[in-house]
Amino acid sequence: MKGRPVGLRRGAALLPSLLTTGNLFMGFVSIIRAFEGRYSAAAELIGGAIFLDMLDGRIARLTGTTSEFGGELDSLSDAISFGVAPAVLAYSWAFDPIPRWGWIASFVFLMCGVFRLARFNVQRHSVDGRYFVGLPIPMGAAPIAALVLFTPDRLALRTQAVLVAGLIVTLALLMVSTLRYHSFKGVDLRKRRSYLTLLGIVMLLLPIVLFREPALLALASLFALSGPILHLLGLVRRRGSAAAPSEPVVTGESH
After folding, report:
1. CA-CA distance, 162 to 160, in Å (whole number)?
2. CB 3.0–4.6 Å: which of 8, 109, 137, 146 could bond 172 by disulfide?
3. How far apart are CA 217 and CA 145, in angstroms?
């Protein structure tokens, strides 16, 4: 009986690393599927890797098994699943009409994604945990995967390829920007009003179940745009505060 709690602790410590390894495996297979021309399958595997990436960190925090090893393994896996895999997928799927500009755009995305991971590793313990600085690399990969799911046939028009290249470069710049994105790490289903959070999650999943491709594309796009939108709202709020007249200072004898 004494050995059981130790075994449970070891299992809890191993589970996040297993999930991260699953994330890496899905990214690897996604690259193979992209080479084979199975673009929908490649995009779905990136989506599965995103799901596992969200789980591993949360489970590590819930079980108290976070470690430097786990953090480094997670970053290296993310570089493959959300850097290399979507770059290869985008190049194979979209850039036949503009191959030279296509590989440049794909490499810019990969480069900025790796820079984003390196910056996150350096700043991990010194930033507000409620926010990410720059678009997280999984959410940079999400619009690419969602767009491929929405339009799975290989693109043949130059105009379409140019638009996708612009999208990929924009996502790359958002990843290395200093815009803030909500991390949702403060979401706790154990709180008293957790049923409201759970209801919100169900309401979010419902359109994905009913209208998978357009709903995923809309959600991925909205999250990518949330950083610039929050930044603009903050600028408007600060300008409004600066323009507001200050209250007159009344001087006189006290009674």
Report:
1. 5
2. 109
3. 8
Please give the helix or strand (H or E) that residue 202 lies within, else none.
helix 194-210
Give the C-alpha separation, 104 to 91, whole Å: 9
Tell me the two tokens of residue 10: 């070891």
Asked if residue 97 lies in contact with residue 156, where contact means CB atoms within 8 angstroms, the answer is yes
CA distance 149 to 130: 30
| pLDDT of 243 higher than 90 | no
Task: Give the separation between CA 247 and CA 29, rounded to whole angstroms.
Answer: 64
Q: What is the pLDDT of residue 209?
A: 77
pLDDT in tens, 154-186: 999 999 999 999 999 999 999 999 999 988 765
- Non-local (6+) Cβ contacts of 95 within 8 A are 101, 102, 103, 105, 106, 155, 161, 164, 165
The rounded distance, in Å, linking the Cα atoms of 83 and 109 is 7
Among 59, 183, 66, residue whose Cα is nearest residue 131: 183
Query: What integer pLDDT is reported at residue 5 of this predicted model?
Result: 57
Higher pLDDT, 84 or 253: 84
More confident residue, 4 or 112: 112
